[in-house]
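2.7 Reproducibility. Because tokenized structures are sensitive to small changes in the input, we list the exact sequence used for Iron-sulfur cluster assembly scaffold protein, including any N-terminal residues retained from the expression construct. No trimming or masking was applied before prediction.
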Amino acid sequence: MALSKLDNLYRQVILDHSSHPHHHGELLDGMTANLNNPTCGDVIKLTLKLDGDIISDIAFDGSGCTISTASASMMTDAVIGKTVEEALGFADIFSEMVQGQEDDKQEALGDAALLSGVVKFPQRIKCATLSWHALQKALENDGNSKVSNLSGHK
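Resulting structure tokens (single pass, no recycling of outputs):
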């Protein structure tokens, strides 16, 4: 019974992030990445600003399923105020987590750690990781904006 209540709480947090996403919208300038998931049609435009090596502002726009939108909202919460190195580390931790690898560092992801259950639904892993891949692309490519497919990622 307690496990069922916990599952319901996790679902509610995910639904809340999807219905009322944090940092949703567009920034006028900054480093950007545009990605889409051709498997399901999710699309994201991620824009972020750096103050030195710190992510000072971040926003995402696009369209996606509940998991994709919730994950983007959770990702923005997790990385704002973090260094580029910390944010890229979080992206790696998240990617490994949704593929079933457990790590005590997952708690640092905040609400995003609740998406660990996506491992049970392999077809949804790309939905959950889309925003995290956009983050990596924006940071690693110095904001060189292009629309890319996620098809090469797990």
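The chain has a mean pLDDT of 88.
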